[in-house]
Specification:
Strand 1 and strand 2 form a beta hairpin. The protein has 4 helices and 2 strands, in the order H-H-E-E-H-H. It is elongated, with a radius of gyration of 18 Å.
Length: 92
């Protein structure tokens, strides 16, 4: 990211925060909850996608095909299994 893109992102984030404060019934102490939840969701999905790529590349081949990824695979890789309906792209 170059300096101009960072400045644009900062401007958009501040505008979004101002919009949230002005147009919601949440108090200043309450609107942090949905914002932090969205940040956590985005982080979890990024970790999930990184782990998925690495896990799929390392899965052993069995006579029945590749082993199916499970929650335990993702936890061992330091990520959470994020179901389709809870992913960032589903909300966008």
């Amino acid at each position: 990211m170059n300096q101009q893109q960072i400045k644009q992102l900062e401007t958009e984030l501040w505008a979004s925060a101002d919009n949230l404060r002005a147009n919601s019934k949440l108090t200043a102490a309450e609107y942090k909850d949905p914002v932090l939840g969205l940040i956590l969701l985005r982080y979890a999905q990024n970790r999930y996608e990184q782990a998925k790529l690495s896990l799929e590349a390392s899965l052993p081949e069995t006579p029945r095909g590749k082993v199916k990824l499970t929650k335990e695979h993702f936890l061992a890789a330091g990520a959470m299994l994020v179901p389709e309906e809870f992913r960032w792209c589903f909300l966008s």
